[in-house]
Batch of 2 targets.
Target 1
Amino acid sequence: MTDKVLQMRLGITALLAAIILLVYGIPNWVSAPSNVPKIVLSPLFWPEVLAWLTGLAGLGLILFSWRDKGVATEDRDPAAPDSGARGRSGDTPRHAYLRLAAMAVLMIVMMWLMPRLGMVWTAMIGFLVTALLMQPRIPISTLVAAIAVPLVLYAFFAHVAGVAIPQGQFVRLP
Amino acid sequence: MSFLDSLMAGLALVGNVEAFLALGIGVAIGVVGGAIPGMSATMAVALTLPFTFTMTPITGILLLLGVYKGGIFGGSIPAILIKTPGTPASSATVLDGYPMAEKGEAGRALGMALWASCTADLISNLALILFAGWLASFALSFRPPEFFTLILFSLTIIAGVSGNSLLRGALSALLGLLLATVGLDLIYGTNRFTFGDPNLMGGLNFIAVLIGLFAIPEILSMVWNPGAHDGQARSLGKNWVTFADYRKSFKSIVRGSMIGVFLGSIPGIGAAPSAFLSYSEARRKSPDRDNFGKGEVEGVAAAEAGNNGVAGATLIPLLALGVPGDVITAIIVGAFMIHGLQPGPMMFVMNVDIIYGLFIGLIVSSVFLFLVGSVAIRGFRLVADIPRAVLFPAVLILCVYGVYAVNNNLFDVGVMFAMGWVGFMMARYDVPAAPFLIAFILGPLLEDNFRQAMLMSGGSPAILFSSPITWFFWALTGITVAAIIRAGLRAARGETLPGLPAKPVQTSED
């Protein structure tokens, strides 16, 4: 991806976001009393100004992307698997995207599980799945950490800090 | 209250084992956090924040300041040993530190990094003590229009210098300001982007946003590319830094510290430009300039002095004006807020004991940094060898517990996950996250001061130009924008500033 393309995409996204905010978002999601004496004091004023400025920034990015010479930015992010720095042997961008998708699913599942299973058990599952996404095999040390870390954190937050950690509906911890 | 009274009040507040223990533990956490490739000082401070909820304000803030100081030095350890700076500011340390390590002088480079860091840290702390009170007494006369122009100037400079492009920085800051509008309106109490959800009425939780922006993207990056941050640590070697080395580099250390103090006190500049400028000045003035870049110990000293000289100075605008100068100080603002404190000029009137307690703690932190740093240099291999597949899942779980603990609310955990993806996408699209976070914190303050000014003037914008101070900040904002545009045009033509690399060194924070 070149810097030109990147800047263009950003600009278009910002411009679209600004238009959506001005046309739909602010009129529908920001409420203001009818008796505001001056427009600058209205709850609508600040979001509208920011939306206009976002649109201008987007426009600026689009204009500057036209002037750009199109320098490749592939080496900008060496952490990216598609940038030449391979994480594991045989790793492809498709694998990387699949891992990211799995991470997104994990986050959604964790949000769903936490009130039902409890934070400690969910955290153990989350730990193991994240570790699996980083290396295909789970050594004993990782397994021990996956059990110990959530338990130690539970002990600190529940018993030292006095936080009511969600316990779930099945197994409750002391 | 006289200076002596204030000092005594501060001493009474921090003169206990708990406060000094927190400071020492903080420095240790910071050094380890900064030294682990893939972690960063910012992440270490963010992850420590939830543990301060149950502490007294001064203990909690000292813990975080310890992490900050330790993290800045800790970043230089992987920079020298594995050529992977733990913080962007340690990039300049790589230039001479790694060649020294290749020559078997890693121990000498690290020792000099530590000595220079502690000296610069001390000078920076003294500058903070000297200037913060003076600036705060000046800022006591600020009214809403002055505060509005000050915050606008701070946001402009932060947006302009945080990334590679003013427009991307501005876009990031605007998104942060927009996100800050979520919740009930400050004056009328009407809903803004709450979608009828009571969880959103108080606005988005600051801790969830900051941990989401600065910790979760690191985990996602590691999932994206599990091989990142791998490196082979060099051995320390037999040579150690001597007093003669220190004396030879002393001028560069003091000069670098001064550069750090000056640049650190301007919101948004940060430690990386300071480290490079200090390095470039040392190279220009040194009789051994030809050795720079090939393993010159004075180069390491200058880079580290410039880097650490910023650490105390960034607290000047924070304590005196309530404006965080960088991301870490923005997180520290969060700690103040959690404990019901609002940094700014009024704190020098209402909470002078806390201010002086912090000053005393900061001075002591330089000593702790020296002690902890000496041990950390020898123990780096232990932390460098922590498997990534244990470290990052543990960080994820710590984030979940920490964010939940703020309000006992699972909704905040969801916000953190969502912000993590926003932060990851911003990194992929080269949009700096720092303006986003600082704008998110300063957004309500900016709007509040703007609307108060409008209420005072009956809606007339003339009040924003009504005093010499507002004119001063408008002029600074204009100069900043012009300078950033000029620098952008020069960069587009391929010119670089002397001493600065054409392309930044990749760091674990990038």
Target 2
Amino acid sequence: MTGVGFDIAHMLAGGLVLLSLMLLYQDRMFALLNVFALHAVVLSLSVAWQAQVQHAPHLYITALIALVLKALVIPVALRRIVVRLGIHRTIETVVGIGPTMLAGMGLVALSMVVMLKATAQADPLAREDLAFALSVVLLGLLMMVTRRNAVSQVVGFMSLENGMILAAAGAKGMPLVVEISIAFSVLIAFIVIGVFLFRIRERFDSVDVGALDAFRGERL
Amino acid sequence: MSPAVLNPALDPLGAVLAIPAVGAVVLALLPGYWLSARLNVLISFATLVAALSLLIERPAPGTFLFVDDLNVVFVVLTTFVAFTTSAFSASYIGHELEIGRLAPRYLRFYHAMYQTLMFAMNLGLLANNIGLMWVAVELATLTTVLMVGIYRTHEAIEAAWKYFILGSVGIALALFGTILVYMAARPVLGEGQDAMVWTTLIKRSNGFSAELLNVAFVFLMLGYGTKVGLAPLHAWLPDAHAEGPTPISAVLSGLLLNVALYALLRFKMLLAGNSAAVAPGSLMVTMGLVSLIFAGFMLYRRRDIKRMFAYSSIEHMGLITFAFGMGGPLANFAGLLHMSMHSLTKSAIFFAVGHIAQAKGTQRMAAIRGLTESHPLLGWGLVLGVVAIAGLPPLGIFMSEFLIVSSTFARAPLLAILLMAGLLIAFGALLLRLTEVAFGEPTGSTAPVKASYVPLFAHLGLVLAAGVYLPGPLVVWFQTVARLLG
């Protein structure tokens, strides 16, 4: 691994962690979706760079899926859903921004300590990639538990999943990466469709009852 | 592609996967309830026959699929319960159509999803590749989410959404663990397929980086543990069981939880083969015991009959995870036996509960009284099932629970006391509710219900038979598998 190649991979993966932290404190719906779109673009660049340095052309497919689906299609679709649901003003956060950011930094530190220690024998690029990927995954989980709004939870889940793709792309020569990224895309498509069809505004406990009454009427 | 996949007609291994896959497509195209319900039974039966033939002739492991002593137990159990559940489902769904709870147009979807789920579970069990196994578990999750939400009521959609989000996070964590296992294997096995194939991973796991395997197992335990329904990651399970159609509750409890457990067991074997890695057992023992005791207490506060048996599933999956976590030939043997008995008993209970809820028009236990008088066959079927699941002799679960407790007493008496406490708490709750529901003055509708008793009593008969006498070859076979599990 040449110095420049390593630095670029490092910068892109680090940028992903930074964007994950930025996602944590976005309190406006559209801003959240914009940052997420940027997150997906950086992921796509990062995977494409891995494809370049690993000489693994199939990873370009994964990068392309990330770019088209997660940087374009899904943010646009979610934007329309947000408008339709009338929740484009603010997002409530269960825990305040300060404690959330502190917890986020703690999680990043934790994943660095755990992964760098656990992967002492692996090659340096894979080590750093895994450590960054775990940070992104944990930050995504943190976002899912601190938000009540279904759309921002979905964004949290997708950022978590971006971390997975980063880890899978960083694991040199791993088979089935493309297949797994496709499987994940199907999953995400289902989630988005679910939010849209059932007008799910908040996680678990509240669903728009008006929309459900229509379903009930249909069965009678 | 392995040749097994290309020649489904010749190869039983391919047939176990191809029959439900083709069946799903056919059922998706076929209109009409009467025909598709019967065809669903027929397809499930054909899959069972193919699975049974794996017992006789076992193909050599390929790069994607393989059969060994461990997964063949799971495959036979899965296909058998899938077959009996499809028979139950035919009469259950017929009734749901009559009362208009399910629209006919959803039925085509329902049957296609049923076979897709069978395909996904069999693929997960037979996969020789950790990535393929993950994809199969994801597919199984998605199909069950769709089926849980099929009634389109407020509660059903909420349950499906909750299951979906928690299940997705679970399988995402499992994928991270899978990637870490690959990273650990790569320096030893080289890049590419070999480092993801079970048969090579197990053989060479001693050379893997122990630290990476440890971290990987934590993720796998949390990820697949969510799907097993272990506390504190169980929150999706009671809702998904209570709000979906009852055949799906039976399949979820009886089969899908086992598939996730199977994945955990495989990874446990991988860690056991590495002398420097932590013993994975302690994590499984802890989570299993917590689930058991937690679910035992939660049983007292249930008002919905399906929800109560869902908590009972958490309890039993906790017990099974505990047994496998303890390890050793005896505890593993007991764990395998308990898993089989639990699958049979719990699905039988759901068969009974499904018809009971249909007869009474409610799932609220307060509104169900005196079942043994109003519906004697269903009522006594439920009594027998609950007596079995509570662990009373002479039924099969008594024997497996006895083995688990006694093997624990021999090795860790303190843990055994906690285990006994958990079992007794659950026992009390189940019998308390059973006496209320089964005996006394009947309430609610006493109109007879068209029910299929054959699957119910076939399962209970098997559980009783296993409790009285376990055939020698079965014991030998389970002992071999138990030794394999380490």
